[in-house]
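Sample intake sheet
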Amino acid sequence: MPSLTIKQRKARNGYLYILPWMVGMLSFFIPAIITTIYYSFCNVEQNTFVTNWAGFANYYRAFREDAKFIQLLVDILLKNLKEIPLILVFSYFVALLLKKPFPGKTIVKCIFFLTVILSSDMFMTMQIEMESFNTALVKGVKENSESFFTTINGAYFADYLQKFGISPSVTDFLENAVHSIADIFNKSGVQIFIFAAGLSSIPDSMYEAASIEGATSWEIFWKITFPMTTSIIIVNFVYTVIDSFNSMLSPALQYINNEGFKGGAYGYGSAMSIIYFICMGVAIAVVLLLTRKKVFYYV
């Protein structure tokens, strides 16, 4: 039997790497998607799961009769439109800082990794169910954090920027960023480590060559660091969108779960789920189409 070439070995290892994902996709995800799509066009009996074809009645109900669902859908789209750029910028900035050697670097990484655990849906749900937010200790922490963040008053900050002629739309965006800094910090844990991995993969020889040629740090960032991490930015964007939409703490998902599935309206719940999924897919597709010519892939 002839030995495999290096290219064939890499291809084999790649297929072996994604084999668990392919098995899970074909065994669980795709059948569930097909069932959900079918249920969305049917009225499903709550106890027997007997289906009666209803056509687009469930979708008509979602768009024309259920005003709350549309409002929740618009709210999460607007919220993610504001939060996702801030999360990406914050996580990229922290990853750049973590790339530099400094005392206590490992401890700082552990602190940011803890946000991944503490902000997870499971941990937050456990806290809510156990009413841990009502304890005196957590109340004290919340009061101290609130008093700290009130020192960074967004309104004063906006007034200060407007004195320099900055438009109100920009100041409103920055003011919202100040008010949501705690949420941004909690949602940036995974993105920080993905950016850190991408930054560490850039060859040091590129920086050495740029320094020898007399390039400044600012030029090195925009000519080397940023272009070399554009693909990582896209990966983090896709992850952040999926993570933001699929959080069970999302009011829209809670509404779909309560009104559709817990309420026994499986057909209507499936239709709302499909609409929700399409909105998430469209958001990702639009950004990928707009940035496909700007992404640099280093081979």
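Comment: The first strand starts at residue 42 and ends at 44. Residues 233 and 242 are 14 Å apart (CA to CA).
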